[in-house]
Design a protein that fits this description.
Elements: E1 18-19, E2 22-23, H1 32-46, H2 49-63, E3 69-71, H3 73-79, E4 83-87, H4 98-111, E5 116-121, H5 125-137, E6 140-146, H6 147-152, H7 154-162, E7 166-170, H8 177-190, E8 195-197, H9 208-216, H10 218-231, E9 237-241, H11 246-252, E10 262-270, H12 282-285, E11 287-291, E12 294-298, H13 323-331, E13 335-340, H14 341-355, H15 361-373, E14 382-386, H16 395-402
Parallel strand pairs: 4-14, 5-6, 5-8, 6-7, 9-10, 9-14, 10-13
Antiparallel strand pairs: 1-2, 3-4, 11-12
Helix pairs in contact: 2-4, 4-5, 4-9, 5-7, 9-11, 10-11, 14-15
Bound molecules: pyridoxal-5'-phosphate.
Length: 410
């Protein structure tokens, strides 16, 4: 068990890539040598100062880190309770946290001598971040995207093409993110020599969940320093939205051993966590199974068929959740809740009106939970939520949901 030795929650996964009963590597024999090589190379890079020096240089000069920690004063006054801070990862280059992880994986790919990068994408944010960093390094980039998503996310498809990436529409299955990930894994097995698979969240077979977490952990590390500078102590509660769970793991991980810090993950409740499964709440509304090489909580029907789920936010509709979250849920170190589309839309508007920040629909879910709990908490209670993406990509969805006519722009 990961937390036996020094009673730490930060030592996982074990040598088999397990977080308790979750994670692991459920992959075909043909994929195994690639996974093992990746693991060996990552283990080497992890303790190599020159690897982190390269990361830090690009985080500073290309991404714009550290992102600010911002005290949301009007929002705090409006809610009338806890003090609310936002970690401003929406200010990163490409508009979200995704690039923190993409940079790490692509620097690793370059060290491994790989010249072709493949990625899966749902809403297109991870695809855009991957295409961006590939352009920066002159690497060939192929992005698998469900055919259905290609239609729904035209602006991001065009961005990827402008950046020189090839976008492959996936028609297998139902043509969504889950199917795109399957096709990317197939590509990897057939193009072993020159190809690196850059996964966009804390999912997939070991070592991906741990590696992606390590790259995103820059978020929580910065919050520790910034909150200590601002308030002289750590926050009482940290909150983040969860699709696959990478921005949340990045914020949570550096706080896992600070028992006084409460940790809350917010899943997409869609139309409500109901029997019709019109939501994407894998932990609050799913059960354990195996998908994309790891064991975790999944949205599935009685026969174990994976369900698509539903959310107003395209970036949250992954039918699984990172295995480390499944473990934190089972041992009770983190709490997981869900927020509906309607509640997220209300939070979206409040952030615009009170703080002048147009948030992505994903972190609007985290903010909606802040709105629920902050009023009943004392004024010296400090909450930090991860504002993990900006809302430019979502204005058409929001306009439609609020009944606005966008005229010729719609
Ligand atoms: C992709 C995305 C998410 C969901 O991914 P996680 O791995 O759960 O972080 C959330 N917010 C934004 C802004 C995204 O682009």
């Amino acid at each position: 068990m990961a937390n036996d030795l020094f009673n730490s929650f930060m030592t996982g996964p074990d040598e088999n890539g397990r977080f308790g009963d979750f994670g692991g590597r459920f992959v075909s024999e043909t994929l195994m040598p690639l996974i093992l090589e990746l693991e060996a190379q990552y283990e080497k890079a992890k303790t190599d100062d020159s690897f982190w020096a390269e990361m830090n240089d690009l985080w500073t000069h290309y991404v714009g880190r550290p992102s600010p920690l911002y005290f949301a004063e009007r929002l705090t006054d409006h809610l009338g309770g806890a003090k609310v801070y936002m970690k401003r990862d929406e200010l990163n280059h490409t508009g979200a946290h995704k690039i923190n992880n993409v940079l790490g994986q692509i620097i690793l790919a370059r060290r491994m001598g790989k010249s072709r990068i493949i990625a899966e994408t749902g809403a297109g944010q991870h695809g855009v971040a991957t295409a961006t960093v590939c352009a920066k390094f002159g690497l060939k980039c192929v992005v698998y995207m469900g055919a259905h998503d290609v239609e729904r996310q035209a602006p991001n498809v065009f961005r990827m093409r402008l950046l020189g990436a090839e976008v492959v529409p996936v028609t297998s299955g139902r043509g969504t993110l889950k199917d795109a990930m399957n096709d990317a894994l197939r590509d990897w097995v057939t193009n072993v020599r020159d190809t690196f698979y850059c996964i966009g969240t804390v999912a997939g077979p070991h070592p991906y969940p741990a590696m992606v977490r390590d790259f995103q952990a820059i978020i929580g590390k910065e919050v520790r320093d910034q909150m200590t500078a601002a308030e002289g102590r750590l926050p009482d509660t940290v909150i983040a939205a969860i699709g696959g769970g990478s921005n949340a793991m990045g914020l949570f991980f550096p706080f896992l051993d600070d028992k006084e810090v409460g940790i809350i993950g917010v899943e997409a409740g869609g139309k409500g966590v109901n029997a019709k499964m019109e939501h994407c709440a894998s932990l609050t509304g799913g059960r354990p199974g195996v998908l994309h090489g790891n064991r975790t909580y999944l949205l599935q029907d009685d026969d174990g068929q994976i369900l698509e789920g539903f959310s107003i936010s395209a970036g949250l509709d992954y039918p699984g959740i990172g295995p480390e979250h499944a473990w934190l849920h089972e041992i009770g170190r983190a709490k997981y809740v869900s927020i509906t589309d309607v509640e997220a839309l209300e939070a979206f508007q409040l952030s615009c009106e009170l703080e002048g920040i147009i948030p992505a629909l994903e972190p609007s879910h985290a903010l909606a939970h802040v709105m629920k709990i902050a009023p009943d908490l004392p004024k010296d209670h400090i909450i930090c939520m991860n504002m993990c993406g900006r809302g430019d990509k979502d204005i058409f969805t929001v306009a439609k949901a609020l009944g606005f006519e966008m005229g010729e722009f719609a």
